[in-house]
């Protein structure tokens, strides 16, 4: 519940007790000015637990104790009269031994301690002691010494590196200088700057460039190394070497050029041979492609002739088609008035699709139409198409009483709606059809609708072109 604060050396000569809420209670009697009248008064000022002077005292288990010395859960009773006994007594600053000359009544001591320059506080930056009995523990200093500590000795204070101008903590400055790219270092070859005595100093980051391009003492290879000159020397000796060995370097270059000329000739020969081979392969491939194209053209012509013959002399099965279309969920489709399309089917080589409109032109009548779809043989078929179709709504109760209706494409239909019967350019043409002359609610009668399904039979027969 309470913490006895100590000085920087760990001695408990700070005689107040600081509670968790920040208040101070309990003072040692020996710091009072010796003007107590009798031993009874002395006894009333002492806490039986911490032996400090009582302030905000209370009775607990028959003894006088400080409020902070009472264990949790133990009954206690406050003693108000004790505050008056203590508050007007004279007391010196608990930090008198450290040099504070303050003295006044106990009632004003708390306010003094909040401002006392000799009061020990933790370093605001959070540094720890590096040596002594408190090694590794938080650094405590007198309040008056904190500014100097933060300015001159705190290991966590920020310093500015004089080389790279970055901010670095004081304790990290030495390691920083080990890798600081702007830190001056000597050339590894200890080269001398022309016109100056001593060795050249460089920024650490410039050393690789210096060695690669500038340093006169750096070992380098002869520029003609790749041509056969295997001499290594310091950079400053390179000019002399090139002058002395110029004739050898020329010979090396001449030899290299001859070798490369031979290699180039060989490569050209190889490429020419490969080119001839590729040309032959390409010619063969083109011949094969031309033969295949001729065969395809001949087959297309034969197929077209066969289709024309079949359409001229064979009315079935190429000129007719049939679809038995079972439609489920009829009730929902009628309520939603949604168009319904069948699976594609073929009439000869013409690809078709059935379409039901449950509300034909908003009349409440069910309409059926035939849509011509885009197919794989369209370029070999005759357009526009003419056909005759029969729609049969099957009767599930009496098969002899089906609902049946027939229609066909006329010359007037071709003239009025040519786009419905021409060769499709999209997925499907607009449908051509007629109403079933039966209302949608009649479709739901038991004789047509079974288990919410109906069956529609579509028969189509192709007609000769007009």
UniProtKB/TrEMBL annotation:
Residues 275-340 form a coiled coil. Its main location: cytoplasm. Residues 112-168, 176-238 form the TRAF-type domain. Transmembrane segments: none annotated. One of its GO terms (molecular function) is zinc ion binding. A zinc finger (TRAF-type) spans 112-168, 176-238. Pfam families: TRAF-mep_MATH, zf-TRAF. Signal peptide: none annotated. The keyword Coiled coil applies. Keywords: Coiled coil, Cytoplasm, Metal-binding, Receptor, Repeat, Zinc, Zinc-finger. It is found in: Cytoplasm. GO terms for cellular component: cytoplasm. The keyword Glycosyltransferase does not apply. This is TNF receptor-associated factor 4-like. It comes from Oopsacas minuta. The lineage of its organism: Eukaryota, Metazoa, Porifera, Hexactinellida, Hexasterophora.
């Amino acid at each position: 519940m309470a913490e006895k604060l100590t000085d920087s050396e760990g001695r408990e000569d700070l005689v107040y007790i600081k509670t968790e809420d920040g208040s101070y209670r309990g003072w040692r009697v020996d710091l009072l000015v010796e003007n107590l009248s009798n031993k009874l008064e002395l006894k009333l000022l002492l806490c039986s637990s911490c032996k400090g002077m009582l302030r905000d005292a209370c009775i607990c288990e028959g003894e006088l104790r400080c409020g902070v010395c009472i264990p949790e859960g133990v009954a206690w009773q406050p003693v108000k009269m004790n505050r008056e006994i203590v508050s007007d007594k004279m007391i010196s600053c608990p930090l008198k031994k450290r040099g504070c000359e303050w003295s006044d009544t106990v009632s004003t001591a708390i306010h003094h301690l909040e401002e006392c320059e000799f009061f020990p506080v933790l370093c605001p930056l959070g540094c720890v002691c590096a040596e002594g009995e408190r090694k590794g523990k938080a650094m405590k200093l007198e309040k008056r010494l904190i500014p100097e500590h933060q300015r001159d000795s705190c290991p966590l204070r920020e310093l500015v590196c004089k080389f790279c101008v970055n901010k670095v903590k004081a304790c990290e400055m030495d390691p920083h200088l080990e890798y600081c790219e702007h830190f001056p270092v000597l050339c590894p070859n200890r080269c001398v700057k022309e016109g100056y005595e001593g060795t050249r100093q460089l920024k650490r980051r410039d050393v690789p460039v210096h060695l690669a391009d500038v340093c006169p003492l750096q070992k380098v290879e002869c520029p003609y190394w790749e041509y056969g000159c295997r001499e290594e020397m310091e950079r400053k000796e390179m000019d002399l070497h090139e002058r002395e060995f110029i004739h050898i370097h020329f010979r090396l270059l001449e030899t290299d050029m001859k070798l490369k000329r031979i290699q180039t000739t060989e490569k050209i020969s190889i490429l020419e041979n490969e080119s001839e081979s590729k040309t032959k392969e390409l010619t063969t491939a083109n011949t094969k492609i031309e033969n295949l194209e001729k065969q395809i053209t001949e087959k297309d012509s034969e197929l077209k002739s066969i289709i024309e013959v079949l359409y001229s002399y064979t009315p079935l099965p190429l000129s007719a088609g049939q679809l038995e279309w079972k439609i489920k969920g009829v009730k929902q489709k009628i309520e939603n008035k949604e168009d319904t399309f069948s699976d594609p089917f073929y009439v000869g080589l013409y690809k078709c699709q059935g379409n039901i409109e449950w509300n034909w032109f908003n009349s409440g009548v069910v309409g059926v139409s035939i849509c011509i779809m885009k197919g794989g043989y369209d370029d070999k078929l005759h357009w526009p198409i003419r056909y005759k179709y029969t729609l049969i709504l099957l009767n599930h109760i009496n098969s002899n009483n089906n609902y049946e209706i027939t229609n066909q494409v006329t010359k007037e239909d071709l003239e009025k709606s040519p786009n419905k019967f021409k060769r499709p350019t999209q997925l499907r043409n607009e449908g051509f059809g007629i109403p079933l002359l039966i209302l949608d609610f009649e479709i739901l009668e038991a004789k047509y609708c079974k288990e919410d399904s109906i069956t529609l039979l579509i028969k189509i027969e192709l007609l000769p072109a007009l």
